[in-house]
Amino acid sequence: xxxxxxxxxxxxxxxxxxxxxxxxxxxxxxxxxxxxxxxxxxxxxxxxxxxxxxxxxxxxxxxxxxxxxxxxxxxxxxxxxxxxxxxxxxxxxxxxxxxxxxxxxxxxxxxxxxxxxxxxxxxxxxxxxxxxxxxxxxxxxxxxxxxxxxxxxxxxxxx
Length: 159
Description:
This protein has strands at 3-8, 11-17, 40-49, 55-57, 61-65, 71-72, 83-90, 94-101, 107-116, 119-126, 133-143, 148-157. The protein is an all-beta fold and 159 residues long. Strands 1, 2, 3, 4 and 5 form a five-stranded antiparallel sheet that branches. The chain has a four-stranded antiparallel sheet with strand order 9-8-11-12, with no helix packed on it. It is elongated. It has no helices and twelve strands. β11 (133-143) and β12 (148-157) form a beta hairpin. The chain starts with a strand and ends with a strand.
């Protein structure tokens, strides 16, 4: 009777149950899909329970869950004065550039330019030195295979 478990804060939690094949001399395969996870790192192990009630644990396996898509969320709050949060997700390791542009499309400021691992992130933007108006922010990622993806959003600074 294998139990599938994952560890949370140094303690294991039972997350599922799979009926075993009983006593057999042939190798058996078991699988379990944990559908209730968000982006992050998880550890799993199997608890094998014999008919007499004795049990043993398998070695733990570590799993990284990454965002499924490249995304740039609308900043919040919007309109803002003078601080706002920009959230984004990266599905593969990439060089990430986030820039602020005026309404004519001219780059005003680079907010981020670094190589990061897959995940969900947020950036606080403070616009103390800008005047009220409509601005565009963009994200560009360049993956290891040189693919380039870009997204744009509009924000309103209301001082």
